[in-house]
Design a protein that fits this description.
This protein has 5 helices and 23 strands. By secondary structure, it is an alpha+beta fold. The strands form 6 sheets. Strands 10, 14, 16, 18, 19, 21 and 22 form a 7-stranded mixed sheet that branches. Strands 4-1-3-6 form a 4-stranded mixed sheet.
Length: about 325
């Protein structure tokens, strides 16, 4: 009984396998449409030529063919690579274009006579190149950097501060700077260095793809600086004295720079042109007319002063 069951099972299995094979062969003999991913490669590029903007690495091609051919197109890499000789498509002014009709002919040759190429799906079919033309331009950080409360961003440094751009001569004439991608560095309370990608320029290539951006942060502190009051727009025959003659300027500055502050780095002034609009009982308004660049904020503890005017002649 067991031998009979074993024999019947293998006979059943044999016919099942044969049926499956027959079904697969029948199915693969039918005609289908499918998208096939094709790789593009520029071939025979001259030694002195730099491709600044390449062709797309891959494109999608809609084809119609027998099922067993489609399996070959989909799963055998050598069927999905199209090599394009550089000299056939390189045009003028550093730009090359592959005509869709040319690409379809190459694809039909690659896939075979039974295959019909229905459509080519690609964002672009052009490329840019340079025969050694290049120039050095500044590299600029295009993001923003912010510090936590009670800290401030003292400086932002980009390393390197310039890059080499390779492109056609006409393209190089329009490129005066290269920028990083707008990557923000936020809420820092210590100096930090980040790798930031360099933004791509269509039709051009840079010698670097990323840069180091260093954000220098300092803790904020406040300090009082006693500064003399200066009169501006005063006729030479007059002498103006203020009371008090010196006032305090309160500043917000980085802790590392606070000890560098000196009174002579500030100018607190009164404008003598205001005298015509005032009686002798009025006070003169004070203003801060100069301060060091590294001082984040400065304000007066005294906003107006008494005064007397004397003639020098």
């Amino acid at each position: 009984m067991r031998r009979l069951l074993s024999k019947d099972f293998f006979v059943f299995l044999f016919f099942l396998v044969m049926s499956a094979i027959f079904w697969v062969l029948t199915t693969l003999n039918e005609t289908y449409e499918s998208d096939v991913e094709v790789r593009l490669e520029l071939a025979d590029i001259p030694a002195n030529t730099v491709i600044t903007e390449p062709l797309p690495d891959t494109i999608r091609v809609m084809v119609r063919d027998k099922g067993y051919y489609l399996v070959k197109y989909l799963y055998f890499d050598n069927m999905r690579v199209v090599r394009l000789p550089f000299h056939l498509y390189a045009g003028q002014l550093g730009k090359g274009v592959v005509a869709p009709s040319d690409l379809q002919k190459l694809l039909r040759t690659r896939f075979g006579e039974t295959c019909t190429v229905l459509a080519v799906k690609a964002d672009h079919l052009d490329f840019y190149y340079s025969h050694g033309s290049q120039k050095k331009v500044p590299l600029i950080y295009s993001g923003t950097a912010t510090a936590k409360t009670n800290f401030y961003v003292m400086n932002i440094k980009v390393d390197p501060d310039s890059v080499i751009v390779m492109a056609s001569n006409s393209a190089l004439d329009t490129i005066n700077a290269v920028y990083t991608e707008p990557k923000d560095i936020e809420d820092v309370d210590n100096s930090v260095t980040k790798l930031v990608p360099i933004a791509r320029i269509w039709g051009a290539k840079t010698n670097l793809t990323q840069a180091r951006v260093r954000v220098v942060v300092d803790r904020l502190t406040e300090k009082l600086i006693n500064v003399p009051v200066t009169a501006i727009n005063l006729p030479p025959q007059l002498l103006l004295k203020t009371f008090p003659g010196r006032v305090d300027v309160k500043v917000s500055v980085g802790a590392s720079m606070a000890n560098r502050l000196r009174p002579e780095q500030f100018t607190v002034s009164v404008n003598a042109e205001d005298l015509a609009e005032r009686s002798s009982k009025d006070k003169l308004r004070l203003s801060i007319t100069s301060k060091p660049d590294y001082v984040l904020k400065a304000w007066l503890t005294t906003t107006a002063v008494d005064y007397v005017i004397e003639r020098t002649q």
